[in-house]
């Protein structure tokens, strides 16, 4: 899922996302709640209408941004209090309010409010935090049952497995949430600084427990490598700012590895950013031109690099699905990891 | 002509320009000479190829930027010496070199090097400056004759009428240049701070003299009002950064006047930016959404506003052509001036 934090996937048009077969994008409840605010989205007739997006929308619960971005004032049984990073105003998110917001948005997939502990965090805190997250998940489920959808389409609610890097807590979390029978399950609190191996282990033991017939969504991950390893461990869905943020920093993902489009070596390279890619940017423009646009500070550089990286990621996911269906995933994955290993982006 | 200073019309894709029926865009010789440099453009096979643009290209002579942007070191009979605004490096432009650059670019329309005097400037300086501009124009014509095009397509060379706001000098300039038989004629040195009435008078007396069968191009102008007045006085071509620069500052041109998309009044306005416009931005998105994008600092705001303003300007020009052909220009112009008069952009 390309990330459209504030109701726009940065530097790319909706029709271009659809052309790359992006069927769902993510919006951030924290950002949208603060700006433009729930009232304006309600007046517009929901988030799809407000932003003019005809595909699906997943909104997160805002929890992650409250913990990472806002000035956090306190966590209680009731919810979280925080000050806006925009104007310092004081706000409270509770599991119930967060469901209400997402009812107003009309998100196709709603997420429960959770606490995302930092890494590292000690086992005692992780256990206490997870217990709270599970109690909040139950209240979210109850609020979902108590409230009606406001628009024509169905809304699914996903629970979020936490537990930091502690196997027993992760397993407990996965079991408790499975019992609550969510429409899908997210794995949260990973890719927050822990070693990749530890992340993969946590994914593995979580997906072992989660019901196989429901989607599993690894939140905020990640690099192509991370995604392939997680897919192999049974994860179905991902979101990450990496393709779009990297693009704006001139770093592109290609079939020839990770390239930095500012590098001097591209100055007279009149081949496409990625010869294997069929996006408009790769069909129409050369590395030399894209490099020039980055060096000259042109907005078009951000547009073309973003379009390409989105295309790369969505093609990667489509290819992974095809490889799974044809029973060739392990070999396919190895071949992709070979191309991914080339990284000149830090040169 | 939308302005693509550094080889990109800011914040809009080439295919979107073509979709709005932009058949020619402008590139700036000064900028392109400094970055990426003539050598890279030559290696790419010309400017069309370097930037991947299949429409026509006009390049200016670089004169205007040398006088307005660089650290000017001196004007001599030979040419101009200046230091780059990018790195302070020392460069010289002569009429001959500027033709050579544009041969390398392969510009469909090349412009002669001219001196663009500031406003105000005294009559003596204006006369001396114009005499130099005319001598440079003659040398440009000779250099054009001495050199060959490097690519398949024809290259036209335009002269530039100067003379500040002095009727006699303007007329002298127009007469001398007409005698040199350029493929087209630009009117330069206007819209540099003089009152609009004075500009219109200068245009009028210049177009009276210039041959009617050749295109007349008013450089760097302007607002929709300016353009309509100049069209009425016989001008055929324009370039201006106004539609694109204004767009990036949230100011849009519409059939309902000039709007500032940051204004609070648009917060819950779910109508299109311009109900009369058929561009993708107006077909797909509301003022409320575009305002949100501007307030949130989203790049998509710049993309949508730019696309719309380009569409507005090109529709304006198309409508002017149709009105002229159907003999209804004066009435049509009055009706457009009525809508243009509304300006809430400074509110």
Could you walk me through the main structural features you see in this protein, from its secondary elements to its overall organization?
The structure is a homodimer of 347-residue chains. Chain A has helices spanning 14-19, 29-34, 38-44, 47-51, 63-68, 95-105, 123-146, 167-179, 196-209, 224-232, 242-248, 280-284, 287-295, 299-325, 329-340, and strands at 24-27, 56-59, 71-75, 80-83, 90-93, 109-111, 156-161, 184-187, 216-218, 237-238, 251-254, 257-260. The model of chain A has no long low-confidence stretch (mean pLDDT 97). In chain A, α10 links the parallel β9 and β10 (237-238). In chain A, strands 1-2-6-7-8-9-10 form a seven-stranded parallel β-sheet. In chain A, strands 3-4-5 form a three-stranded antiparallel β-sheet. Helix content of chain A is 46%, strand content 14%. Chain A is globular and about 60 Å long. The longest helix of chain A has 27 residues, at 299-325. Chain A is of the alpha/beta class and 347 residues long. The two termini of chain A are 29 Å apart. At the A-B interface, α3, α13 and α14 of A face α3, α13 and α14 of B.
- The rough form of chain A would be described as globular
The structure class of chain A reads alpha/beta
Reported for the largest beta sheet of chain A, the result is:
7 strands, parallel
Oligomer: homodimer
